[in-house]
Design a protein that fits this description.
This is RNA 3'-terminal phosphate cyclase. It holds the Pfam family RTC. It catalyses: a 3'-end 3'-phospho-ribonucleotide-RNA + ATP = a 3'-end 2',3'-cyclophospho-ribonucleotide-RNA + AMP + diphosphate. This protein is of the alpha/beta class. It has helices spanning 18-30, 82-93, 116-127, 187-202, 252-268, 277-287; strands at 6-9, 34-37, 60-62, 70-75, 100-106, 133-142, 149-156, 165-166, 172-182, 210-217, 221-222, 225-234, 239-245, 291-296, 304-305, 316-321. The strands form four sheets. It has a five-stranded mixed sheet, covered by helices on one side. A hairpin with a 6-residue loop joins strand 6 and strand 7.
Length: 330
């Protein structure tokens, strides 16, 4: 291992896999070798959970080479999230010399990770404001514990990313979503999730039409699963979501209520992104050329507190002077 490798403590803050994913992506983009220790120290099962490295290992070293475009396949061989695979792959492919096609296999709707619907409907339109563009085709949905999902992603490279400013939320103008069942699970579960979610949101937001469609996944699903995602749109183009997945022994209406309460929590604070998107945008803010400013809810970084409050809750501005990382391959 190069003695000049950047050493990273994987146990800081929540001690999850996000440190590993973002560190690996930044290592590849900058060409800097890294050594990460105490990987996933904050999780119930610390260490790596992937094939191709030692399962359970809490240390890893990476000396990157040139980022290669072309066709790449990543298969968790479990219900591991394809969306988390995309979190590490997307920033890298932006700095390749040509378009890349990624075949990502595993869980599309998994616990402790964004659902693929969140990635396509919330993350994608917002992250594309940085000047990037990618397509995401859900070929097959996969659920816990079997996985088996497949998503095809096409990414075009960029010379550099542009900064983003999102500081004015505006009014919530639209709320919509999908409640789904797949496999042998009865369609009634989807309707129960939808009904409970609408009823919960109605208690707080009475003036908007709420459209949460119950759906039966048939051809494009592998295994059994149920869940819900609800998306709110604002007059300035901000997007927020609440989601939940069904579990054995948990009533469907509880799943719908959980997703609805998550959505309400994320729009009460009057920020411009929800609690999940704010984490996912940090790496793009850091790579962009120029200063990005995004208004969030309560966050874990050093930020500026907003004084002009439009709600009773506190909001903040995350401000980041990006590194202006250039793509040397274009």
């Amino acid at each position: 291992m190069d003695s000049a490798a950047v050493e990273i403590d994987g146990s800081v803050m929540e001690g999850g896999g996000q440190i590993l994913r973002l560190s690996a992506a930044l290592s590849c983009i900058t060409g800097s070798a890294i050594k990460i220790t105490k990987i996933r120290a904050g999780r119930s099962t610390p260490g790596l959970s992937l094939q191709g490295a030692t399962i359970g290992s809490t240390d890893i070293s990476l000396t990157p080479g040139k980022i290669r475009s072309g066709n790449h396949t990543a298969d968790t061989q479990t219900a591991g999230s394809v969306c988390l695979l995309l979190q590490v792959a997307l920033p890298c492919t932006l700095y390749a010399d040509a378009a890349s096609q990624l075949c990502l296999k595993g869980g599309t709707n998994a616990e402790m990770a964004p659902q693929i619907d969140y990635t396509v409907k919330v993350f994608k339109p917002i992250v594309e404001r940085f000047g990037l563009q990618f397509d995401c085709d859900v070929r097959l949905r996969g659920y816990y514990p079997k996985g088996g999902g497949e998503v095809m992603v096409t990414v075009n490279p960029v010379k550099e990313l542009q900064p983003v400013t999102m500081t004015e939320r505006g009014n919530i103008t639209k709320i919509h979503g999908r409640a789904f069942v797949a496999g042998v699970l009865p369609f009634k579960l989807a309707k129960d999730m939808s009904t409970a979610a609408v009823r919960t949101i109605r208690k707080e937001i009475k003036e908007l039409y709420i459209n949460i469609q119950p759906l039966q996944e048939k051809e494009k699903a592998y295994g059994n699963g149920n869940g819900i995602i609800i998306i709110a749109e604002s007059s300035t183009g901000c997007l927020f979501a609440g989601s939940a997945l069904g579990k054995k022994g948990v009533y469907a209406d509880k799943v719908g209520i959980e997703a609805a309460e998550m959505l309400l929590r994320n729009i009460r604070h009057n920020g411009c992104v929800d609690e999940f998107l704010q984490d996912q945008l940090i790496i793009f803010m850091a790579l962009a050329k120029g200063t990005s400013r995004i208004r969030t809810g309560p966050a874990k970084f050093t930020i500026t507190k907003c004084e002009d409050q439009l709600s009773s809750n506190v909001t903040y501005i995350i401000e980041c002077e990006g590194s202006g990382a250039l793509n040397p391959n274009l």
